[in-house]
Amino acid sequence: MEDTIAAISTASGEAGIGIIRISGTESLQKALMIYETKNGKKVTRLQDRRLTYGKIMDPHTGKMIDEALVCYMKAPHTYTTEDVVEIQCHGGYISLKRIMEALLDQGVRSAEPGEFTKRAFLSGRLDLSQAEAVMDLIGSKTDLSHEAALGQLEGFLSGKVKKMREELLDLMAAMEVSIDFSEEEDIDEVTFEDVYEKTIPIMDDIQWLIDSAKTGKIIREGLKTVIIGKPNVGKSSLMNALLKESRAIVTDIPGTTRDVIEEQLNLRGIPLVLMDTAGIRDTEDVVEKMGVERAKQLFDQADLVMMMLDASTPVTSEEVALLNMVQKRKALIIINKTDLPSVLDESSLPEWIDSDQILKLSLLESSGLLQLEEALENLVYDGEKNAREKEMVTHLRHQQALEKAYDSLKEGVKALESRMPLDFVQVDYQEAMDQLGAIIGESVKEDLIDHIFSNFCIGK
Ligand SMILES: Nc1nc2c(c(=O)[nH]1)N(C=O)[C@@H](CNc1ccc(C(=O)N[C@@H](CCC(=O)O)C(=O)O)cc1)CN2
Ligand SMILES: Nc1nc2c(ncn2[C@@H]2O[C@H](COP(=O)(O)OP(=O)(O)OP(=O)(O)O)[C@@H](O)[C@H]2O)c(=O)[nH]1
Ligand SMILES: [Mg+2]
C-alpha cells in the first residue's frame, strides 16, 4: 500500500486561494481529522467530487486555521488514480503552511517533487512522455511551447511511438513465423521483401520526428542568445530594442556594460534567453576585464551568437578573430549604426560569411529590427514552415532514443539485405523497440524515472 502524501500545489506567495492536495488510501480519513462543517460538526464522509464548504481546524488547539472548500475524489478516476482530497483555502503563507503542518501531524507524508504525477505514471494513467509534458506545460513561457507541451500531454508522441512499436512487433513476429516454417535458419524471400518494405516507412517516421527535435528543443528550452562585439557598437541598445524597454544602460562611453545582463523574451513565439555582454577589448580595468572573460565564456555556451559590428568604424583584427570563432556556430552578423557615414568595408569580413547572415540596422532610427526578427525566426525553423505545428519532439532524451532506434533499424535492414542469420536482425529490431519504449517509459531503469520526476516541482 502506498502511503498518503500531501503538498501545497499552488505557487507560494500572496494569492487569492491556495490548494493543498492529498493523495493515497488514507486521504479522506486524514483530511476529515482537520475538517468540520460550517456548523462545527465532524463528518465521516464527503460526497465524491463535490466541493464542500467547511472549516479547517487545528486538532491540538481546537482553533480554526482557515475556512476552505474541500473536494474528495474517489479512486481510481483521479489525477493519481488514488483517493485524492483537495483543500482550497485562502492563499498566502500561513494558512497553507499550517494546514500542511496539521496534516503531517496526522501522519501524512510530505510529497516529493513530482510524486503525484509519478503515481499517475506508475499506475499507467500517463506514460513517461506525457508525464514530462505536464512539467513542460507548467514551465512553458510562450504560446508555442505551451502548444507543444499540450500536444505531448495529449499523447501525440506516445501515439506515434506506440504505433511504431506495434508495427515492429508485427514484423518481428513475421520473421519468427518465417523461420519456423523454413528448413534452415533463413528467412524466406516473401517475408524478407515484406519486412524490408514495411521497415522503411517506420524509419521515415522516426527521421521525421528527429528532424522536428531541432526546433522542438528550442521551443521548449529557449534559445540562449548572446550579443557580443567590441565596446560601443550598440549591444545594449539592441538588448533594449528587442526587449522594448530600457533595461541595460546605454552611453557613448566604451566599456559601459561590465557584467552580463540576461533577460527572457518572447520573440514571435520563440523563447529567447538574451544576454548582453561587456564589449570585448584588451583592458587594464579589473572589473571590465572580468566582464570580458564572462562574455567569452557565454559565447561558448550560447545556442546563437549575435556578433555586432559598427558601420561607422573599420573592422578591427580583434573583430575578425571573433568572427572566425563564430564560423561553425549558429550566428548572425549585425552591422549597426548604418545611419552614420559608412566606414566599415564589407569586403574585409571573412569570406565564409553568408550574405543572409548579415543584417544591417540602425538602432538610433529603429530600422532593420523586423528583418532581424525574421532572420532569427528562419534560423530557428530552418526555413521549414511546417515546423510551426505543435507536433514536435522537444526533449533531448526523446531525440536521442529516436536516433538510436533509427540506427538500430538501419543495422537491421542492412543485416536483412545481406541475408544474415535472423538472430542478428532480431537483435537490431529488439533494440529499436527498446529505444522507442524508453520514450514512453517502458523498459527504462528506475533511476532514470526517479531522476526525471525529481526535476518536477513540489505539489505536481
Ligand atoms: N484542482 C485541480 N485542478 C487541476 C488539477 C488538479 O489535480 N486539481 N490538475 C492536475 O494537476 C490539472 C487537471 N488535470 C487532471 C487530469 C486528470 C484528472 C482525473 O481525475 N482524471 C481521471 C478522471 C477523469 C474524468 O473525470 O473522467 C482519470 O483520468 O481517470 C484530474 C485532473 C489542472 N487543474
Ligand atoms: N548613431 C548611432 N548611434 C547608436 C546606434 N545604436 C547605438 N548607438 C549609440 O552608441 C553608443 C553605445 O551604445 P551601447 O548600446 O551602449 O553600446 P554597447 O555595445 O553596449 O557598449 P559597451 O557596453 O560599452 O560594450 C550609445 O551612445 C548609443 O546611443 C545607432 O544605430 N546609430
Ligand atoms: Mg553595453
Automatic annotation (TrEMBL):
Gene3D superfamilies for this protein: P-loop containing nucleotide triphosphate hydrolases, Probable tRNA modification gtpase trme, domain 1, tRNA modification GTPase MnmE domain 2
Q: Which UniProt keywords apply?
A: Cytoplasm, GTP-binding, Hydrolase, Magnesium, Metal-binding, Nucleotide-binding, Potassium, tRNA processing
Q: Which cofactor does it need?
A: K(+)
> Could you name the Gene Ontology cellular component terms for this entry?
cytosol
Give the enzyme class. hydrolase
Q: Where does this protein chiefly localize? A: cytoplasm
Query: Sorted alphabetically, which InterPro entries does this protein's record hold?
Result: G_TrmE (IPR031168), GTP-bd (IPR006073), GTP-bd_TrmE_N (IPR018948), GTPase_MnmE (IPR004520), MnmE_dom2 (IPR027368), MnmE_helical (IPR025867), P-loop_NTPase (IPR027417), Small_GTP-bd (IPR005225)
Q: Which HAMAP family match?
A: GTPase_MnmE (MF_00379)
Functionally, this protein is described as follows: Exhibits a very high intrinsic GTPase hydrolysis rate. Involved in the addition of a carboxymethylaminomethyl (cmnm) group at the wobble position (U34) of certain tRNAs, forming tRNA-cmnm(5)s(2)U34.
Query: What name appears for this protein in its UniProt entry?
Result: tRNA modification GTPase MnmE
The organism of origin for this protein? Tindallia californiensis
